[in-house]
């Protein structure tokens, strides 16, 4: 750490609006405004949060997913566009770094895209998930390594990876070589159950230790009504519960506050660069 400074971050566990991309964007804006009132300088949202993660693809076969895939495509985010303009304005207004996951629509394809906005509202990083996982390959195109960049921001050097990209040592190493200080990780949440939450735990603590950086991790959350809207099959509904682990990890691999594994909310501990982290959730 080259200089001593205090950072307050928010890792957000929140549910999207599965019916409306505009509704999800409204929740993002509301969360940013609320975090600003709490003095937050960095806020991280879950993977492909706008308009929503394609949970349907996890429990339905492709032959039954066509209409849902098309609806996701129609509501997906264009860059630049209304979503990026709204988030950039909030980042600039509050002097906050915002890390947002979106479904990006570009030239007829969808991508799992991570956006990092700096405190001036500039889109500092736009990157696409390198290889969608399992069922996700029916939804998103593959990314490339062009976006594996660390953003120099007012709060430090910020990088990001999505979900099981944390099993890709070369992707993580690319960020380490750029002297990443704060790593922002995003997972969908509400998938697979406790085993997924434990996997998240292992990956984010491992990266914090190996990279010597703070990790701010956000996962999504689905309500019972939302789960029922995705599938009415009780057996399949079990696959859409659990799997949440919203947390902030120190470079020593320790939680700055207990992880959030149920419900909506966020953790926003404060840490001081160059000394032992102090947590105030």
Give an account of the 3D structure.
By secondary structure, this protein is an alpha/beta fold. It has helices at 21-37, 56-59, 66-75, 82-94, 169-176, 194-211, 224-230, 234-237, and strands spanning 6-13, 42-44, 97-106, 109-117, 123-128, 151-153, 156-162, 182-187, 214-219, 247-249, 265-267, 270-272. The chain has a single domain, classed as Carbon-nitrogen hydrolase (Nitrilase/N-carbamoyl-D-aminoacid amidohydrolase, 4-Layer Sandwich), CATH 3.60.110. The protein has eight helices and twelve strands. Strands 1, 2, 3, 4, 5, 11 and 12 form a seven-stranded mixed sheet that branches. A five-stranded mixed sheet has the order 6-7-8-9-10, covered by helices on one side. The protein is globular. It starts with 5 loop residues before the first strand and ends in a 9-residue tail after the last strand.
Task: Provide keyphrases for this structure.
281 residues, alpha/beta, Nitrilase/N-carbamoyl-D-aminoacid amidohydrolase, seven-stranded mixed beta sheet, five-stranded mixed beta sheet, 8 helices, 12 strands, globular
CATH architecture: 4-Layer Sandwich
Strand content: 15-25%
Mean pLDDT: 93
Structural class: alpha/beta
Described by the principal axes of the CA atoms, the overall outline is globular
According to DSSP, the number of beta strands is 12
Largest sheet, strands/sense/barrel: 7 strands, mixed
Low-confidence stretches: 274-281
Give me the strand/helix succession.
EHEHHHEEEEEHEHEHHEEE
CATH H-level superfamily title: Carbon-nitrogen hydrolase
Assign the CATH topology.
Nitrilase/N-carbamoyl-D-aminoacid amidohydrolase
Radius of gyration: 17 Å
Cα distance, first to last residue?
Answer: 23 Å
Q: Which range best describes the helical content: under 10%, 10-25%, 25-40%, 40-55%, 55-70% or over 70%?
A: 25-40%
* Count of alpha and pi helical runs: 8
Number of domains: 1
Under CATH at level 1, the class stands as Alpha Beta
